[in-house]
Structures are given as structure tokens and as C-alpha cells.
Amino acid sequence: MITLTIKKKWFDMIKSGEKKEEYREIKKYYDTRFKILAGDHKIHEILFRNGYSKSSPIMKCRCYIGIGYGLPEWGAEKGKVYYVLKILSVEEV
């Protein structure tokens, strides 16, 4: 299972169901984590963590991982291609 750190704003929006996608840049660091998974049409469990301390809130989400353009209102730059984690459900908080 992959753990990703995100800002509180995005964490809260995902938790509430308002934000349905999370984005990660296409670069070597994420290539090693997502390239094999992107577009495999399987559902993956991803842990989103708000912060780096032991007491930081964590939620487990079920996601599809693909490659595409993101929405600026959800933190993406217009016209930039990302790994797109489509959030299907929040399983645990």
C-alpha cells in the first residue's frame, strides 16, 4: 500500500467527498510508485496522510490510478499531465 502526504485543504476535501481526484507530478520519484499501476484497471488502496508526525490524521481510499490532466480547482496546473488518482471511496479515517 502506498502512503502519500497531502495538505490539510486537500485532505479535508477528499474526506468530505468534495474532491474526487488527487494529482502527482510525472517524475522519477512517482514513476517508481505508479507507472506499473497506472491504467491497469485495478482498484488500489492508498493512504493519504495530512502531515509527517506520528499523530497526523490518515485516511485509506480506494483509487484508480491513471495518467491525464487535472482540474485547477483541485490543485492541478492547467495543461499539465499528472498521475491522476481517481478516488472511488474513503474507507477509513
How much strand?
35-45%
Q: Strand count, sense and closure of the main sheet? A: 5 strands, mixed
Order of strands, widest sheet = 1-3-4-5-2
Named CATH topology:
Archaeosine Trna-guanine Transglycosylase, Chain: A, domain 4
- Give the overall pLDDT as a whole number: 92
Main structural class: alpha+beta
The appropriate CATH architecture is Roll
Number of strands: 5
Helical content (DSSP H or I, runs of 4+)? 10-25%
Runs with pLDDT <50, length 5+?
A: none
Count helical runs: 2
Topology as a string of helices (H) and strands (E)? EHEHEEE
Specify the CATH class. Mainly Beta
Global shape: globular
Cα gyration radius (Å): 12 Å
Short descriptors:
93 residues, alpha+beta, Archaeosine Trna-guanine Transglycosylase, Chain: A, domain 4, five-stranded mixed sheet, 5 strands
Chain-wise SSE layout:
Blueprint: E1 2-5, H1 8-16, E2 21-25, H2 28-34, E3 44-49, E4 58-69, E5 81-92
Parallel strand pairs: 1-3
Antiparallel strand pairs: 2-5, 3-4, 4-5
